[in-house]
Amino acid sequence: MLPRFWRKIKYRYDLVGSYCENCQSFFYPPRNLCPHCRRRSKIKEIPFDGKGRVLSYTVVHDAPEEYKEEKPYVVALIELENGVRVISQLVCDPEEVEIGMEVKKAFRKYGEDGNSGIIYYGTKFVPDN
How many CB atoms neighbour CB 97 within 10 A? Predict the structure, then answer.
């Protein structure tokens, strides 16, 4: 995929979910239909502010070769302020992480295609100090 088209995919650069105006439920990843309301659903796409707290986490010590600079790294289950839960990398020292700590979304590098290829960016989380 050409870089300019890849960069136009809004889901790559922000935390976008959906909201049902009928039952006031939030969803991530986005849905086209509310599982509670079904045909009565009134789904609207919305960006999430990205503030939340850590519910659980794990520290990855043995990762694929492309993540060798990041070892060890943290993957966390994060509950956003609206109740939506997401799984994401938490960018911090593994010794700093604790259940209940406040975090916020951050724009970070995911990886790249070879030494001279496309650099991929997206949403990760960082401590909200």
Answer: 17
